[in-house]
Amino acid sequence: MDGVVVKSTGSWYSVLHSENIITDCRIKGNFRMKGMKTTNPCAVGDNIVFEMMPNENTGVISEIKERYNCIIRKSTNLSKQKQVLASNIDKAFLIVTIASPRTSTGFIDRFLVTAEAYHIPTVLIFNKIDLYTDEMYEFHKTMKSIYENAGYECVEVSALRGDNIEYVRNLLQGKINLFSGHSGVGKSALINRIAPELNLKTGIISEYHQKGKHTTTFAEMLALPFGGFIIDTPGIKEFGMVNFTKEEVTYFFPEMKLLANKCQFDNCTHEHEPKCAIKKAVENGSISETRYNNYLNIINGREMDVEDWELK
Ligand SMILES: Nc1nc2c(ncn2[C@@H]2O[C@H](COP(=O)(O)OP(=O)(O)OP(=O)(O)O)[C@@H](O)[C@H]2O)c(=O)[nH]1
Ligand SMILES: [Mg+2]
Ligand SMILES: [Zn+2]
Q1: Contacts of 60 (CB under 8 A, 6+ apart)
Q2: Could you give all domains of the chain from N- to C-terminal order, each with its CATH number?
């Protein structure tokens, strides 16, 4: 039978199939996706084939159909294992906030580069605007203009107060949507605002660390009452990127991609080469210095971010 993985809890997968039935499935013994070394062979969003176990209510997954796309993250610890966050996604929403826990542009850019690599259009959602001080609002305005300038839609919301929720519903309708971001930014709270009937568990922010508590522990695809699906995911601390070449990374910064063929050298890395169109654009302000610095960090394999309090 055919189905789609809507939840994965390690060894068990919830598979949605005919007539909206969900069956718990395991994976066949030594099953492996061809050439994919990931911690999870099967991810939420995968279209799969499964067989029912005789005399049981459970199934066994025997095949994963080819993925249309997926978002892969590499762990930043020594193991460097790759994890598929979700697959077959129409649209990604990166939930960020300037309030708490504040999201750095380094994190945002790693996510965006990865989404560009897999051709997944991404919207930035700035949540918790009800908590903004004047200083946060100024910071937010700069950040928003940096990302709009790079070609990304930015939406300001408050899951608590309900600002712009109808607008977000329209963006989600009829599509398979991924929600990602740090723990505690309000992914689940926002989903609850968008579709209260889903009634997801939400957490608290630790006063001391200003960090989330990892309330959502497994990725889960949920049907939206107004059509479409949303994948709520556990918060991620760092977004390690799989290895791309320097040239590829340039292409995954949309504002750089447009200029890359104007550099003097075909293989320009835009670091220190003369007559570089991208460096010139940074100097004249049409490409943001913050984005450019993140580009340099990425191509040079620097994984840890310094929190950026000053945007350029
Ligand atoms: N003031 C305010 N608080 C919010 C808003 N959205 C979420 N919160 C709070 O932020 C905390 C974390 O929200 P969650 O929805 O659990 O965050 P999450 O992103 O799902 O976190 P994980 O599941 O751990 O990844 C909760 O205490 C929410 O009430 C908002 O718009 N304004
Ligand atoms: Mg959550
Ligand atoms: Zn260049």
Answers
A1: 25, 26, 27, 28, 50, 51, 53
A2: 2-64 (2.40.50.140), 72-232 (3.40.50.300), 246-299 (1.10.40.50)
